[in-house]
Amino acid sequence: MEFPRFPQQKSLFLISSGKFTTVIFRHTSGARAPQLRLKPRDIPKQASLLQEHIGGKLHTIEVNALSELDSLVWLYLPSNQLSVAPYETFRSVLDTLQILDLHENPFNCDCRIAWFRDLVRDQKSRVVNMPRETRCEAPPLLKGKAIAYVTGQDLGCVVEDSCHPFLPCPSLLLLLLLTLLCT
């Protein structure tokens, strides 16, 4: 079977069989390849497996790129250049995903990745593939640390664990007080 070639030798292979659809992205032009961005129009709605093999060039997944993929069960995006994994990007597929593989990406570990850390830590969930290989690249203090082991404080988030369950967190009270004083 002959597959079509796209500009800059990027190609998209679509293999369809009944309800199972696989999308595999490939890139063969080597180190001179441009930074790639995954957009909603790049993926058919019925995709159940999305696997990326484009030579580690995927830098960005647009927020709504996965929003209409209600059949997506496997998402493989390892060894790319993803530095952030915003919850808004993955929110629509979290209920259907059985495998999410984002290991060996240079993640900037800040509060935006806390949702992913929680998913990795969830013992009931076996969604995240290779959680110990999914590590922080930045900030320097967290470089090389598995995302599963970073704390909310490491990420610069408000540490909810230190709050009383029936009282607001002190940091939230301080924020409210500052807001009232500044208005």
TrEMBL record:
SMART domains: LRRCT. It comes from the Eukaryota. Keywords: Leucine-rich repeat, Repeat, Signal. One of its GO terms (cellular component) is plasma membrane. Coiled coil: none annotated. Residues 105-158 form the LRRCT domain. This is LRRCT domain-containing protein. It comes from Araneus ventricosus (Orbweaver spider).
